[in-house]
Amino acid sequence: MTGVVNPLQVSRFLRVYDGAAAQKGIKLSIGFDFHEYVSITGATPTKGPTYPNFRPDRSPIKSGDGYWIIGVDKYDEVALLEAARLYDLSHSNFAEHLHSLKAFYADPTVHAHPQDRCTCIAPSAKKITGKVAYHGDLWVRRDFRGQGIPKIISGIARGVSFAMWAPDFVCGLVPRWRVDKGVVAQNGYTHCEPGGSILQLVAYHIVDDDWLIWITGEELRSEIDQR
Prior knowledge:
By secondary structure, this protein is α+β, with helices and mostly antiparallel strands. The protein has one domain (7-225): Gcn5-related N-acetyltransferase (GNAT) (Aminopeptidase, 3-Layer(aba) Sandwich). The protein contains 8 helices and 8 strands, in the order H-E-H-E-E-H-H-E-E-H-E-H-H-E-E-H. An 8-stranded mixed β-sheet has the order 1-2-3-5-6-8-7-4, sandwiched between helices. Helix 1 (7-23) runs antiparallel to helix 5 (149-165). It is globular. This is N-acetyltransferase domain-containing protein. It comes from Bradyrhizobium archetypum.
């Protein structure tokens, strides 16, 4: 994606979502140290396992190529989490990246379990190339669910990803129920397809059959410019 990022426009975009979080009693922060992130997620009750693509011992993230969002309540207790990273798929595509397990491990031959596997049959995944911002590991504490929090954190993540990377695509993998309930559309993703990730990661007890969701870089720029 080409074009200069307008910091003022991004600031206006982010302020809307940051203000919405504050109205819910949540203070948002952004971090870049993924060792710290894994420490936080590991100490967060009811949160499922953090996927290896956000674990620096399995898939190191270079400085500037990833960030995470944390929201705390008035007692400074963790209320929400999400992480994002940039994939350079200029010589590959998202389907291939998933199938090879390189989306999860820096070196699958070293870190993957022999029974780990990932199948991606979503047709559009092969067209997702270039600078790809991947958003995942979303968790919202039970007492904050049903209040539109995912929409808020998704907005923050899209704005930050645009400001940092101006990506060609922003994508994620979600369970079907989020699509069926309209959560994906509410969170700003305009495209979705089944068969995004039929996944098994043995060491993390992860078994998924997720949909692929995405927006293009131009769609993201248009969204931000309209603020």
